Structures are given as structure tokens and as C-alpha cells.
Amino acid sequence: MTQKPEQILFDKLARFCNYRDRCSSEIEQKLNELDAEEPHRSIVIQWLMEGEYFNDKIFARSFASGKFRIKGWGKIKIKSALHSKKLPEYLIEEAISSIDEEEYLDKARQLIERKVSSKKIDHLLRQKVLRSMFQKGYSSTLVLDILYSLQQEAEPRSVRS
Asked: Domain range for residue 145?
């Protein structure tokens, strides 16, 4: 006995959702890739929602957490990526605020220290670090504050030598 088109779509999307957390726009995109037609799309989305195969809130939080902890992304880049997933603003803000502020500052400092190491912080190095951290999604204010504090910490050492 052959399966109904919506059952075939559901099976494919269930596997797709079980691989990792998904958001509604990824489900829509996958349905487009599979050339799913409207009556079947609605049924499949309903089944997936009832089975809790995807949840935008859970997706947003795990996406933000993963990109921050594993990739070292800053809040600006995470927010931009979540916007590209067409998530509602309140979910994006909730996901961003779930990142621990102290952990965020520590991560930014670690990334900057890795770039600076024992080098003297001159104008060129400052620009290089700023560009690098801006690409990762950290604010220039935060980066400059950390660079300033690192420079202040380094100066007493060089005066004592």
C-alpha cells in the first residue's frame, strides 16, 4: 500500500527535525525544497507542531547558546543570524538575554587576549582586533573597553621592568 503524500513529507521532515533543533522558517524552506503543495504543507506543519518536532523558542535559545559557546559569536552576529531565520523579535531578544553577561565579557576578553597575547597594543593591532571582533559580532565599545583595560594592565609591568 502506498503512503499518502503528506505522510511521506511528514516522515522526511520528522527526520530533518530530529537531526537538530529547527525553527519554522527552516521547516518552510525544507517544504519548498521538497516542492510540497499547499494542502499537504498545512497538514504536515500541523502534525509536526502537535508532535513538538520544532519550537522557535527552543531553537532561538539553543542557537544563541551554541553560536556563543562554540563559535565565539557576539550578540550582534547572533541577533543578525536569528533575524535571517525570520524569528519574532521577542524570541530573538529572549535568546540574546539568555546569554550570561559575565560569561559574555569573559569570552570577549579571552578572544581579545588571544589576538593581543604579549604584543604591545598599538594603533594597527587595535584596528586588527576591532575588525576581528566586529566580524564576530561584538560591539566596538566593548572591544575598546577591554583593549584599554589590557593596555592599563600591561603598562605597570613594562614600567617595572
From this structure: 101-160
